[in-house]
UniProtKB/TrEMBL annotation:
InterPro entries: DUF1462, Thioredoxin-like_sf, YuzD-like_sp. This is DUF1462 family protein. Signal peptide: none annotated. It comes from Staphylococcus agnetis. SUPFAM superfamilies: Thioredoxin-like.
Length: 108
């Protein structure tokens, strides 16, 4: 079974640019339910990183994404899969499934 590491970077406060979008935590929970149903043959491992609270024991890779969010280069919630950027801001299903289909399913 293929394993995919899913990381959602977010914060308690909804991103100012993402008015009416779900919270980072809601996005994290939504991904867990939707991806398990849509891709039953993939084992997803989920991690939520609060960009304001989780500041210790982060990899350089995680720190890079957090810095880009803090410098307004990217928005939160930000989703990565296997350490690759997938989408940020108002997270929708289409870019996520496109990434999985192109980078994970087709690489089997």
């Amino acid at each position: 079974m293929t394993k995919v590491s899913v990381v959602v970077y977010g914060a308690d406060v909804i991103c100012a640019s993402c008015v009416n979008a779900p919270s980072s935590q809601n996005t994290y929970e939504w991904l867990q339910s939707i991806l398990a149903r849509k891709y039953p043959n993939i084992q997803f491992e989920y991690t939520y990183i609060d960009i304001e609270k989780d500041t210790e024991n982060l990899s350089d890779h995680d720190q890079q994404f957090i810095e880009q969010i803090q410098e307004d280069e990217l928005f939160y919630p930000l989703v990565t899969m296997n350490d690759e950027y997938v989408t940020d801001g108002y997270v929708q299903l289409k870019p996520i499934t496109r990434f999985i289909d192109e980078h994970i399913v087709n690489e089997k």
